[in-house]
Amino acid sequence: MIRGLFIRLVGKKRRENIDKDKIKKILINGGRIGDIVVKTPMLEALAKLNKDVKIDIKVVKGGKSLVENIPYISKIIEDQKKPTRNRVVRGYREIRDAFKNRKKYDLYFDFTNNCRFIHILSLKIMSPKYLIGRYRMEKFGIKKDELTIFDGYINVKSNAHAVDINMDYLRPLGLDKESRKYRLYLGENESKYKSYFDKNKINIIVNSKASSDSRSLPLDKLKELVLNLIKVENNIVVHLMSIPSEFDILKKLVEELNIKNIKLLPKTRSISEAAGILKYSDMLVSVDTGVIHIASTYDIPIVGIYPFANMNIELFDPKSGRYELIRGNKKINSIEGFSLDEVINSVDKIIKEERVYDKRCVI
């Protein structure tokens, strides 16, 4: 096929054996909030590659605060562009960014498996010394490991967790056996909220907002959820978490309910500050989004409300020692149809399993 021929042409180079000592500068695509947290073990491991290594990371708008205090991050590239599904615009951005980073890096990881011409061309233009990628999707007559632009290929299992996939990318560097535990550096927010919660209460944070409306809790469902949560135990206090743009909406809800053990968390300036609050809570009830991975960092018990699609659970399973997951039952990428009773029962179940609360519920 003509398309396959062009992809082979741009996807060809002299493949090299990876020499760790020659890697001085690395670029990592950190992605969204949850992706950043899940990549922290990979970042920790890469920092041990050699004494001269410098790591640059690219994150979405709003993600900078999660990485700006990491001591081994050299440069943060915060992407200000809104995501788009327009292929032409996406292709243009890929090529433009590739020229910006042309021959600047010794190592780059391609976390996709696509064989699009524009994508492979952008990697060619960027031209890192070493390129590690996963086996390609076999299209246009191209075999999974045919493109020699990649100096190392990674086999990704269909049911693998994202953190394990990330660490597998380090196998050619001999770093894949390093710790897979998440770690965050919050700077001034590390202990800012240490005394925020009443230690004699069970402080449950509820996050209703995901990256799309189909995976978020509507206001009426959120109201029903919090009213039922406070009935589980007399000493439960529910704290609503909000993104800045919806703070006033949730403030109005809390004022209308006018119940002393339903509260609104402070309006935060960054995701790092929100993480600093979450760190000292007793439990998180949340839709499928990045705060679940932040809670996992601190081993906080989680009740997660996930879309129907299996992939979301397998790829981004919480890593806390104790969690319960409830799924939608209608649309693939939606939480529609999830059982509110299951959420309440799961919270009750976790509380009853651990009766002693010392500062916060660590299970």
Question: Explain this structure to me?
Answer:
The protein has 363 residues and is an alpha/beta fold. It has two domains: 172 residues, Rossmann fold, CATH 3.40.50.2000; 165 residues, Glycogen Phosphorylase B (Rossmann fold, 3-Layer(aba) Sandwich), CATH 3.40.50. 32% of the residues lie in helices and 17% in strands. It is built from twelve helices and twelve strands. A six-stranded parallel β-sheet has the order 3-2-1-4-5-6, covered by helices on one side. Helix 8 links the parallel strand 8 and strand 9. Helix 2 runs parallel beside helix 6 and helix 7 packs parallel to helix 12. The N and C termini lie far apart (56 Å).
Unreliable sequence segments:
355-363
Strand order of the largest sheet: 3-2-1-4-5-6
Task: Output the CATH topology of the largest domain.
Answer: Rossmann fold
Please count the beta strands (DSSP E, at least 2 residues each).
Answer: 12
Would you list the SSEs in sequence order as H and E? Answer: HEHEHEHEHEEHEHEHEHEHEHEH
Total DSSP helices: 12
Quaternary structure of the protein: single chain
Considering the protein shown, what is the CATH homologous superfamily of the largest domain? Glycogen Phosphorylase B
Mean pLDDT: 92
Helix content: 25-40%
The top-level CATH class of the largest domain is Alpha Beta
Reported CATH architecture of the largest domain:
3-Layer(aba) Sandwich
Integer tally of domains: 2
Q: State Rg.
A: 22 Å
Shape annotation: elongated
In whole angstroms, the N-to-C terminal distance is 56 Å
For the sheet with most strands, the description reads:
6 strands, parallel
Assign the structural class, choosing from mainly alpha, mainly beta, alpha/beta, alpha+beta, or little secondary structure: alpha/beta
- Beta percentage is 15-25%
